[in-house]
Amino acid sequence: MKISQEAADVFSFPLFSKEFCARVVESSQALKWRRGDVYKGQRREYSNVRACDEMRLKNFILLREAFAEKFESVVAPAVKFCWQWQIRRWRDGRLLRYHPGDYFGRHVDYYPGSGVRYSRILSLVCYLNDGFSGGETRFLRQNRAVVPEAGKAVVFPSGMTHPHSSEPVRGGTKQVFVAWLS
Fold this sequence. Notes:
Helices cover 19% and strands 39% of the residues.
């Protein structure tokens, strides 16, 4: 497996084939999406931080089962190679869909007091399609943007060292799968 360092403690590697990603995107069209939420502590807040659709992974068996398999065979070994850490589980996977103008502003995925019931040590973003414009994942402190490519996963620390954003999609539709590792 080829692992690339995108920035300080930001690594990417191939996770799914382009064919599998196309199948996921196609299959997801028939499922029920909802507008994404932003939480402040335990309180749900709709704000100008985020504009995209989401679906919890528990509602999408095809992707959930495929990622569970890849977690053991690809993700855990990649994390061990990059950080010398043994991760044991993944949690709370979601499928996100960004239409033109949608974005996710500067944020971190975990901080003490965030209201998340478990520790998010690493974040994983897997791009499920390409062929759209915009939508790069920008790492603000590392001054680096990762260009989406179908099947490519990006893994990075979930906390305050890696604030990141999803730049607005300018044309087409972007879909990603996200999960948090511990």
